Amino acid sequence: MEKKPASIEKIIDRNMKSVRHAQLIATYLGVYDVIAVTVAYFVALWLRFDLQFSAIQGAYFKVWLIGAPIYAVICLLVFRYFKMYRSMWRFASYTELQRAIYANAVTIVVQVVLMAAIFYFVFPDLALKRMPLSYYFMGAVFQFILTAGIRFSYRFLLLIRNKKSKEDPINALVIGAGAAATIVIRELKQKSFINEKIVGIIDDNPNKWHRDIDGIPIIGGRKMIPEAVKNLDVTKIYMAIPSVSATERKAIIDICKETGCELMTLPGMYQLMLGNVTVNSLRKVEVEDLLGRDPVKMNSRETRSFLSGKTVLVTGGGGSIGSELCRQLASFKELKKLIIFDIYENNAHAIKLELNDKYPELDLEVLIGSVRNSRRLKQVFSEYRPDIVFHAAAHKHVPLMEDSPCEAIKNNSIGTYYTAYAAMLFGCERFVLISTDKAVNPVNVMGASKRICEMVVQAFARKIAAGKAHDLPNLQGHVSYGKSAFDEMALPYKPKTEFVAVRFGNVLGSNGSVIPRFREQIAAGGPVTVTHPDIIRYFMTIPEAASLVLQAATIGGAGNIFVLDMGTPVKIDDLARNMIKLSGLKPDVDIMVEYTGLRPGEKLYEERLMDEEGMRKTENELINIGSPIEFDDDKFLRQLEDLMIAAYQERADIRDLIEEVVPTYHPAGRHGTEEKGEAYQEQIEAMEAKAEEKSEPKEE
């Protein structure tokens, strides 16, 4: 027989020890219960006769003596049925109390029936026909006290011990007086290693004010938080309100962060629904909680139907957005095949391992390649024939692309054209471009290159709709080392690919985003560097971004540019200061904030739509469609080919050529974009005022 690894043997040994320990505890409790139920009814009989054993009539004692062992065995069976030997009594709660009451109620009935049976069948000639009524009453009371008391006393002793062990605890405040808060409060009390004392509870419901939960007073509503922190010397705040809306959560956090306390929160309502509300599920309040927007709701039924039986290709599948997109796609069992295409093998390998572990049944293919290689793309499309393409591959770092503008054009603009052409060539059903709000009135090369990507999508959509797909050139920007079978492939007679784009703002936590940088700077003791005190950005979470992309793919519509209603834009300066406050520190006191000046290609504000674009609603109120901007497709395609050649020639005047292709591109510093920012700032302030108005608590 093959020997098991030592580590496996240790695990098995630990598991066996745990089982043996549980069995031992159950045995001890069983022995105790036998003694307890026997003693309970004997003491009841003894008390009935004024604590004088000699006064007990012989018949009563004989009946008790015969019934006691039978009753003890029946009690063991009943208690086992009600799982009184399986509970962990250090965590005993209402459920365990319920079981104890039911078990004892059943055994009381058994006691009455058993005693009556003994009188009737064993001693039918006795003048006495039943035990005294006080015997049954007092016996039941003593039995419940002895059997339930020993179990709950263990938890009580642990609470006393934990209370004594918490020397000089820090004072904490809990926000919320609902079910989740109750669970968190009780568990915090039980944990001996948590040296904290809950001194007050905050809840906006006035009906709960001046009442207690586990002896802790409910002080008042959210407006009382600063006063409570000051008067009760609070240094930590727990937010136990998983069901509250994102807007309400942000409003409460805005109050809490001014107190300088450390903030902890429960992730969401699903924790409560799944019964996962524990101290372990609490986490530090993150900057995502400050967005004040409920996440995008995806129609899973429609998306599941759309993806059913499809082969899906994700370019840039190892990146921040691409990898999250792959995670969400992998969760749909109806998917036929998922293909990850990325140039960076480390990221691609990491997401492959993650998905293989989580979704072992998923048909997953991970391929290495660049979207700048049209032949490689055509080879992949020819072999796997994807039905849907999510094009996430792109250079996204603004200052770096300012230094390397030709690379932005080659990778972003021309790479998108190559991918779109391959999708059309091999009969892909839908092509979804992931764009950015920086494509709107761009002032940097990265934004302009992404605007060209959107124009590519619109040009393909219009050419296919007009039956002129054959006018789309088969661009070849690479250096040729001989002809390839893919170079001269002819388009199908009537291409059917539907092209759409999705536009959203900055993504929290993505590679190169400002949030991880701020975290590092705060951890290092500062300073935190902000480019400009008035710089403004839209933000969304990575899962939101991926959900929006899936929603756009489901809705479709040739040439559509989907735009998410991303709520109120955020000042980067406020973001930095809030992150410092959430760390329990004071901006410009504990951590300095320094302004470094706008970086190359950076503008103060971002827009979601250009002036020329209109806005149409979809069934999802958070997703809108920007009406396509008209431009001359043939002229654009000629200019794009010239731009491709110029990029591969590394021409120094590439920005001038980009301006010719993208009329809305105005390089920073040339056309005074700051003036427009002032008007935009007024819109921001109006939106913020409206958001604050919404977040005010309603009086009941």
Q: Structural class given helices, strands, pairing?
A: alpha/beta
What is the topology, as strand order, of the major beta sheet? 10-9-8-11-12-13-18-22-21
Tell me the number of strands: 22
The CATH topology of the largest domain corresponds to: Rossmann fold
The tally of helices reads 21
Q: Main beta sheet: strand number and arrangement?
A: 9 strands, mixed
End-to-end distance, in Å?
72 Å
Mean pLDDT: 79
Low-confidence stretches: 1-6, 268-281, 671-677
The outline comes out as: elongated
CATH H level, superfamily name of the largest domain: NAD(P)-binding Rossmann-like Domain
Count the domains: 3
* Percentage of residues assigned to helices: 40-55%
CATH architecture call of the largest domain: 3-Layer(aba) Sandwich
* Name of the top-level CATH class of the largest domain: Alpha Beta
Radius of gyration: 35 Å
Q: What is the strand content?
A: 5-15%
